[in-house]
């Protein structure tokens, strides 16, 4: 009897910097990053091509107080550099776990990571390597959510997976409202109409225009990433 096939062959995983903190106040929690990489490894073993966009909140939060009153573009560049640090940590953990990871940065830091070049990224994916996109879009005023939507569209991903600490999109805040229900799926227009704030407006509009579905799920739940890849009812699907 043949084992079930993944529902998706190429995906873009958006990880927030906060996802790497675990229960720590800031920084990278070793146990947490190892567990996330184990989930990624399980998915790649199924033959799924995986790219990652990583945020920088876990590092930038530590210096955010000092950025009050700072020029917005300068603060954004600092945030982009924080994502490069996270990408290096993620790639190192992946390589130690037997995966082959490549970090590609939207900002040129050739001594540390290679620059983002789309054909090279596609080649790496086809070779079974995990590609980690660092430094957001390379531009201030754009979030890493927008970078995820942009890179997802560029590499022809079938879906953008937004990993959060909540297991989907709810009708209200489940921490405050016990009657809040999880949407199994919702359209882009419904999500906008209900002001659910799944991603920032630029990222959301880009996914909607490209008809690139978004799956919101919890990276904290064991096995959730694999269940999403297999097409099971995990998280919330946002679709055209």
Short précis:
The protein has 240 residues and is α/β, with parallel strands linked by helices.
Explain this structure:
The protein has 8 helices and 9 strands. α5 packs parallel to α7. β1 (about 10-15), α1 (about 30-45) and β2 form a beta-alpha-beta unit. It is about 35% helix and about 20% strand. The chain has about 240 residues and is α/β, with parallel strands linked by helices. The model has no long low-confidence stretch (mean pLDDT about 95). The protein has a single domain, classed as Carbamate kinase. It is globular, with a radius of gyration of 17 Å.
Order of helices and strands: EHEHHEEHEHEEHHEHE
- The CATH superfamily is identified as Acetylglutamate kinase-like
> Any idea what the shape is?
globular
Question: What's the gyration radius in Å?
Answer: 17 Å
Helical stretch count?
A: 8
* Sequence of strands across the biggest β-sheet: 4-3-5-2-1-6-8-9-7
Which regions contain 5 or more consecutive residues with pLDDT less than 50? none
Return the CATH architecture: 3-Layer(aba) Sandwich
């Amino acid at each position: 009897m043949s084992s079930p096939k993944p529902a998706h062959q190429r995906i873009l995983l958006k990880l927030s910097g906060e996802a790497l903190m675990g229960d720590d106040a800031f920084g990278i929690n070793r146990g947490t990053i190892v567990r996330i990489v184990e989930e990624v490894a399980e998915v790649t073993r199924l033959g799924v091509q995986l790219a990652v966009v990583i945020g920088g909140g876990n590092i930038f939060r530590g210096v955010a107080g000092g950025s009050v009153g700072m020029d917005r573009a300068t603060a954004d560049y600092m945030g982009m550099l924080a994502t490069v640090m996270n990408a290096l940590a993620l790639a190192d953990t992946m390589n130690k776990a037997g995966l082959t990871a490549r970090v590609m940065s939207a900002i040129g830091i050739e001594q540390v990571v290679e620059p983002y070049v789309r054909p090279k990224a596609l080649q790496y994916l086809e070779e079974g390597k995990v590609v980690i996109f660092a430094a957001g879009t390379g531009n201030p005023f754009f979030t890493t959510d927008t970078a995820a939507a942009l890179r997802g569209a560029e590499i022809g991903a079938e879906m953008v997976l937004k990993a959060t600490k909540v297991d989907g999109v709810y009708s209200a805040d489940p921490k405050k409202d016990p009657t809040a229900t999880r949407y199994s799926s919702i359209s882009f227009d419904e999500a906008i109409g209900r002001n659910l704030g799944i991603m920032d407006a630029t990222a959301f509009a880009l996914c909607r225009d490209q008809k690139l579905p978004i799956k919101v799920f919890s990276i904290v739940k064991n096995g959730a990433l694999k269940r999403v890849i297999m097409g099971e009812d995990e998280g919330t699907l946002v679709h055209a």
